[in-house]
Specification:
Blueprint lengths: L1 H26 L9 H15 L30 H12 L11 H17 L14 H6 L3 H13 L6 H21 L15 H17 L5 H16 L13 E4 L2 E4 L24 H12 L3 H6 L1 H8 L5 H5 L6 H17 L1 H18 L15 H13 L8 H9 L4
Antiparallel strand pairs: 1-2
Helix pairs in contact: 1-15, 2-16, 3-4, 3-6, 3-16, 6-7, 6-8, 8-9, 8-10, 8-17, 9-10, 10-12, 10-14, 14-15, 14-16
Length: 415
């Protein structure tokens, strides 16, 4: 069965490569035709991202300036936001760009400055690092996804900035974000805060940021990390509630109140309207299981302790209905795939090889002519989805991500 899937993958990649080479041949760029198709796809995606960066250093849902937005695309907010900017910075960071070297050094510096300014201008109280509300990525991953993605970015930048002053600034802002995250952790150990379609992905980002920051020695978040680990273990053991039909109103019943999945914020942390939501994330098992898999497999000890749960989850990856998530590939699927790729890459073996081969073929086929990827539902914006696709394609080019190697990735950028 596996050999058959590998033959299908090779055939699929060959077709994609032929298409790419034909396009390159028409453009006269024969040297590019000798490159790896993944490298070509990543380069095209990065080129587009940098080309649409806003004058303020940030990115929004579909670009950094209004003129870059697709005609007919209904934006859910105006201006550039922290979450989209942070995920682009992650893509630049994981493709060889640093604060001191790389083709896109200056765009990365501008993006980091955009993020840091927002963190520094935010009040110490509350979970938010921005006063911008109702962005597409917030409406789907939760109202505080900006904070979670920022904390993860700053944790990876910690210790890898060009000079001591810049490193001190990143460390201070990281500690501010972590303090916000720890204070806002819900009683069950998650950050499944109402106001989003897939808040479990926010919990995933929050947990990852704490793990990387602690591995760097930037914070001591052991209590919060233990609570989210316990939440994940219990969540993995629980039977999920039935999934809602795709034709329903996409509302999640939250502690007696209905939170519209497509709606805006449902109140701040600590307010009466902010309560815990179903961990299944709007009835989509992929999102929930991807978070569990990443959390349960971070260290060798974790993998041994959680072997049964991990096996149960990885056993579902051969089911196309499970992998497709909501029924089509939206931004939430891309971020879930990132969790799965990181987890399987840690362990290696045939499961990782098969998954990575399938994912690579899928992504190469999905790329648009302009170098972008766009979600087919929910998070449709090209900025977040293109950044996530680049991170996925680059996953096998990096050291296998564990808590320990996560802190080494940014350090590699000092060369």
């Amino acid at each position: 069965m596996r050999s058959q899937r590998m033959r299908v993958f090779v055939t699929g990649v060959a077709a994609v490569v032929i298409g790419i080479y034909a396009e390159i041949g028409l453009s006269g760029d024969q040297d590019l035709a000798k490159k790896d198709p993944v490298d070509i796809a990543v380069a095209k995606g990065l080129k587009w991202l940098v080309s649409v960066q806003g004058k303020d250093g940030g990115w929004g849902q579909d670009g950094g300036e209004t003129s870059y937005v697709r005609k007919g695309e209904r934006l859910e907010s105006n201006g550039n936001d922290v979450a989209n900017t942070a995920v682009v910075a992650e893509a630049l960071l994981h493709t060889g760009t640093t604060g001191t070297r790389g083709e896109y050094r200056e765009p990365l510096q501008r993006a980091v400055e955009f993020v840091l300014k927002h963190v520094e201008q935010s009040p110490p109280e509350g979970l938010a690092v921005t006063d911008q509300q109702g962005t597409q990525i917030q409406r789907k991953l939760g109202p505080y996804i900006d904070t979670f993605l920022t904390a993860k970015l700053l944790a990876e930048l910690d210790g890898a900035m060009p000079d001591a002053k810049a490193n001190a600034r990143v460390r201070q802002d990281l500690q501010k974000c972590v303090a916000k995250i720890e204070k806002a952790q819900l009683k069950d150990g998650s950050w499944n805060i109402s106001g989003g379609w897939a808040p479990i992905l926010g919990t995933s980002m929050a947990s990852q940021s704490l793990a990387i920051a602690q591995a760097k020695g930037a914070v001591h978040a052991q209590f919060s990390m233990a609570r989210v680990e316990n939440y994940t273990v219990q969540s993995a053991a629980a039977a999920p509630p039935p999934a809602p039909a795709a034709s329903d109103s996409r509302a999640i019943r939250v502690g007696g109140a209905v939170s519209g999945v497509g709606g805006g914020m449902a109140g701040g942390v600590g307010s009466a309207s902010t309560v815990e939501v179903s961990a299944v994330s709007a009835g989509v098992p992929l999102y929930k299981k991807a978070q569990e898999l990443e959390q349960l497999s971070r260290t060798q000890t974790d993998r041994e302790k959680n072997a049964k749960q991990i096996k149960d989850i990885t056993g579902q990856l051969s089911d196309p209905r499970f992998v497709t998530g909501f029924g089509s590939v939206g931004g939430e699927e891309f971020f879930s795939y990132l969790n799965i790729s990181e987890s399987l890459h840690r362990t290696g073996g045939p499961e990782w090889k098969t998954w990575n081969a399938d994912m690579t073929a899928k992504l190469l086929k999905m790329q648009n002519e302009d170098g972008t990827w766009a979600g087919h539902h929910c998070i449709t914006g090209r900025v977040a989805v293109t950044s996530a696709a680049i991170l996925l394609l680059r996953e096998d080019r990096e050291p296998a991500p564990t808590v320990q190697t996560s802190m080494m990735k940014p350090g590699m950028m000092k060369h």
